[in-house]
Specification:
The chain is α/β, with parallel strands linked by helices and 578 residues long. It has helices spanning 3-20, 24-39, 44-50, 61-73, 77-85, 90-93, 101-111, 116-124, 136-152, 159-174, 186-189, 208-215, 251-259, 262-274, 298-304, 320-325, 355-364, 387-404, 428-431, 449-460, 486-496, 513-521, 541-550, 564-573; strands at 157-158, 179-185, 194-195, 198-204, 220-226, 230-235, 240-246, 277-279, 284-286, 340-341, 369-372, 409-417, 436-440, 467-468, 499-503, 526-529.
Length: 578
């Protein structure tokens, strides 16, 4: 089995354990293992051989043994026994909006329902309504959920699609009289690169008008559920949106609880119990009775637990609790720390603006230096530059520099293709003339891992290459990217001083958060770039910054937060100064 197959098995085990009713801790252990293995860059077979499986977050000896069993036998006895007990097809039933593990188990136990088709037939035959906890309305909601699934599917929504939708709805709700606070919650607030549903939170004393406004949002296809403080709708695009309304004095616990992650919240509740409190979205409540402790903001929640504030981007139970307890939380990179962009395109290749226009747009956003990096010749679809055109471009860059004066420094670079055969698109003598060289893959991304790595290593070991752009080449949601041995790439990039990019375009977000965390551990120098093809693309920067935050990145890690003189020294020495 490969990494993805093992991750899939662990994810399915988590679903089956949920249906069986196992403890949260056990279910979460498999869920975290699945997610971490899926995003892990190193081949598990290699890690088994060198005894390093337990270095993967969430993989202890028990799960390492199961990985070894799958790698050596191609199967997992525990999984086979579990599917003998619980039909594997029940996992598919969980795709229906409103059907959780408990209901799936109920339908199986009472009506032997094992598939969506059987669930639909039972609901249409009015068989569900007589079950415990069900009724005609619940049955109708399940039919509506099946219909929505048939119309829209259930793919996760990329961050770049979900965030503007959430912000648009919240802007409307914020204008409702009596609303004092609004926020995005869930995985969207944590800025995961894709999300299931959108969670919206509102502070108001009265929920009625807020919910009326929410239900009247133009893209609402159906109001799925409405209660006193909670409402769920389905948008026409197939995204579910949950709204919760509570008084402002309970805002801190509300926002913390519905931001998650589930694993992080469990850790917070355990800490609360150690201090004698129950913790939920409403308040801290003393275990032995007494008055609630309300928290008007999240800082108060963490203070009650004896912790400093933990930024939302870190709340994945990946060591942030321990870091907070030890006073070791990172000082995360912020938008205002970024003073340059090292990857952009102009009308010389496939960009929309001239060199001068891009420089002006960068200056307006507070940048102190930039690199013009148009595509190289073999990327014909992007009007890539020949060596002759690269040299001609120098004159326009110099003219733009003269126009801008000392407002901003403009460097000439290139985004050079690493060709399918591993050769680089430009000869060394041309690369030596440039201020900054990016190497990247756009073609033949389906090559096997050895071929991909040979291409990368040819670039990383070239003394003229300064940065690798969007290393996996993924495009969200449709293209997973190349099969890259990220651990080898990190080791070699650190050894050679090659910068790795965090591409801020929300269709890429490449490197992803888990890769950033590992790159930092290898002390790889990183850059957050917008890969701008038009002036407005500079506004995508926050996506890259927030992804970097999820990877625990600090300004010391991000080269385009460094002053110009320090940036230039690094290009000469390839040595970190921190």
């Amino acid at each position: 089995m490969n990494n993805q197959q093992i991750a899939d098995i662990f994810g399915r085990i988590a679903d089956l354990l949920g249906i069986r009713g196992d403890s949260y801790h056990r279910i979460l252990a498999y869920r975290r293992a699945s997610e971490n293995i899926e995003s892990w860059g190193q081949d598990l077979s290699t890690m088994l051989a060198d005894g390093s499986l337990t270095t993967i977050p969430g993989i202890g000896e028990t799960l390492a043994d199961k990985i070894e069993e799958m790698l050596t036998t191609g199967k997992l006895g525990f999984y086979e026994r579990l599917t003998d007990e619980i039909p594997e097809s029940l996992i598919d039933v969980l795709r229906v909006d409103g059907v959780g593990p408990k209901k799936a188990k109920l339908f199986y136990d009472k009506l032997e329902i094992c598939s969506i088709a059987e669930l639909k037939a039972a609901a249409e035959g009015e068989q569900l309504r007589a079950l415990a906890g069900m009724g005609a309305k619940s049955e109708a909601k399940i039919l509506a959920g099946i219909a929505a699934l048939e119309r829209h599917g259930d793919r996760r929504t990329p961050l770049g699609e979900a965030l503007p939708i959430a912000e648009g709805i919240l802007a409307t709700l914020a204008a409702v009289p009596g609303v004092t606070k609004t926020a995005i919650g869930g995985s969207l607030r944590r800025r995961r690169d894709d999300i299931g549903d959108i969670d919206l939170l509102v502070a108001a004393d009265e929920a009625g008008e807020v919910m009326d406004t929410f239900g009247a949002w133009p893209d609402v296809e159906e109001v799925v559920q409405r209660g006193p403080t909670k409402m769920r709708v389905m948008l026409r695009g197939g995204i579910g949106v949950d709204l919760r309304v509570l008084p402002a004095e309970r805002w801190g616990t509300l926002l913390s609880y519905f931001t998650g992650s589930q694993a992080h919240n469990i850790r917070l509740r355990e800490l609360a119990l150690q201090k004698g409190y129950h913790l939920n979205e409403h308040a801290f409540t003393p275990v032995d009775g007494g008055e609630e402790i309300l928290c008007a903001d999240e800082e108060a929640v963490y203070a009650q637990l004896g912790l400093p504030y933990i930024p939302a981007a870190l709340r994945e139970d990946r060591g942030e609790i321990e870091a907070a307890e030890g006073g070791m939380l990172p000082q995360l990179i912020k938008r205002e720390d970024i003073i340059s962009d090292l990857h952009m395109h102009t009308t010389w290749s496939d960009g929309k603006q001239t060199v001068l226009e891009m420089a002006q747009a960068a200056y307006e956003r507070g940048y102190e230096y930039i690199v013009i990096t148009d595509h190289s010749q073999s990327l014909g679809i992007a009007n890539g530059l020949t060596p002759e055109r690269v040299r001609e471009q120098r004159a326009e860059i110099e003219a733009a520099q003269a126009e801008m004066g000392d407002k901003i420094r403009i460097f000439q670079g290139t985004e050079m293709e690493i060709k399918a055969d591993g050769s680089l698109d430009f000869p060394d003598e041309l690369l030596a003339e440039l201020d900054f060289v990016i190497a990247s893959l756009h073609v033949s991304l389906r090559q096997n891992r050895d071929q991909i790595m040979n291409r990368f290593l040819a670039a990383v070991h070239n003394p003229h290459v300064d940065m690798i752009a969007h290393p996996t080449g993924r495009l969200l949601p449709e293209r997973p990217g190349a099969d890259v041995d990220m651990e080898e790439l990190f080791r070699e990039a650190a050894a050679m001083g090659t910068i790795l990019e965090i591409n801020a375009n929300p269709r890429r977000l490449d490197l992803r958060d888990s890769h950033i965390r590992r790159a930092r551990e290898h002390r790889v120098v990183l850059a957050i770039n917008c890969d701008a093809h038009a002036r407005e693309h500079f506004d995508l920067l926050n996506y890259g910054v927030e992804t970097a935050q999820r990877g625990w990145a600090t300004p010391a890690d991000i080269i385009n937060s460094w002053p110009l003189a320090k940036f230039e020294r690094y290009l000469q020495t390839k040595l970190r100064e921190d």
